[in-house]
Amino acid sequence: MKIVLDAFGSDNAPYPEIEGAVLALKNNYCDSIVLVGKKDIISKELEKYFYDKNRLEIFDASEVITMEDSASAAVRSKKDSSLVKGLELCKQGKGDAFVSLGNTGAVMAASLFAYGRIRNVKRPAIAITLPTKEKPQIVLDVGANVDCSVENLVQFAELGSLYSKFLFDIDAPKVALLNIGEENKKGNILSKATHKELSESNTINFVGNIEGKDLLKGIVDVVVCDGFVGNVMLKTIEGAAISIFEIMKEQFKKDWIAKIGALLSYPVFSYLKKKLDHSEYGGALLVGLNGITIIGHGRSNAKAVKNAIKFADKIAASDYLTHAKEHFKRN
């Protein structure tokens, strides 16, 4: 598979993107990569690395969409940006999947403009792979749609179920609705109505509501919510994980007994950090579109970029997109 990478998306671009691309090629995570961005800067940075030049291309783009830019306005005005140009390549069939660590709103807007929605899908959604105690879990939407209808949430459940099936090879993924209680009568008007629709679905393995306290247990495969709730949930988990590690580090530095304890607990500490590390998955898939876009974190390092490329290749090589189109064509 050929992966198109926005080389000027991250907070520290283009350095994590370039190093991550080289690492992905060395690990054979994809067949080839196209780095999109300012050619002179990319070429100079690549001189630091050894890689197969036959598997890496540079596509020049003179403009950059920053985190401060207005998403839709930037997509319209910066036609020669690495984001817009990269998606054009995929639209033209010159790439199998697109990866960007840039402005999330701009990546969503540009992807929607380039690919268009899958027929009968009302809205695309951002689907993350959330690490849990038992297994990775797909959660959607985490920011694309702050206001949703029952139909939107039901479609997210369908998209998430298909995604889980082809990403993790699960025949009938367990789908749950994020709510304030497990009982079917709990929640607001939207939650109650969505619960009723999902319960009556013949295509979704709906197992009921799930509370926030159970999210990291890994008892289901797909969790559905609107983008407002999903984004708050995601950032709360990220913030909590960072705070826990910072508190642990402070305690370990207190005295020599704590330092000995730190050395003894290092294997557990290291395992926990890796299990909760977003860079292990690399990015989130924008589902519901006629193409594949992986959105990565702006603070991503080379490891996260490498894994985002691996992730993009896996999705592109699977039958997810084809089956998603077929599914919604029938419905």
Q: Can you walk me through this structure?
A:
The chain has 331 residues and is of the alpha/beta class. It has helices at 15-26, 39-46, 71-77, 82-91, 104-115, 150-168, 189-199, 227-252, 256-275, 302-317, 320-330; strands at 2-6, 32-37, 56-60, 97-100, 125-130, 137-140, 174-178, 205-210, 222-224, 284-287, 293-295. Helix 4 (82-91) packs parallel to helix 5. The longest helix is centred in the C-terminal third of the chain and has 26 residues, at 227-252. It is globular. The mean pLDDT is 88.
Summarize the structure.
With 331 residues, the protein is an alpha/beta fold. 46% of the residues lie in helices and 15% in strands. It contains eleven helices and eleven strands.
Largest sheet: 11 strands, mixed
Q: Biggest sheet, strands in spatial order?
A: 3-2-1-4-11-10-5-6-9-7-8
What structural class results from the helix and strand content?
A: alpha/beta
Share of β-strand residues: 15-25%
Measured between the Cα atoms of the first and last residue, the distance is 30 Å
Total helices: the number is 11
**Uncertain spans, ≥5 residues at pLDDT below 50?**
none
Rounded mean pLDDT score: 88
Name the overall outline: globular
Rg to the nearest angstrom? Answer: 20 Å
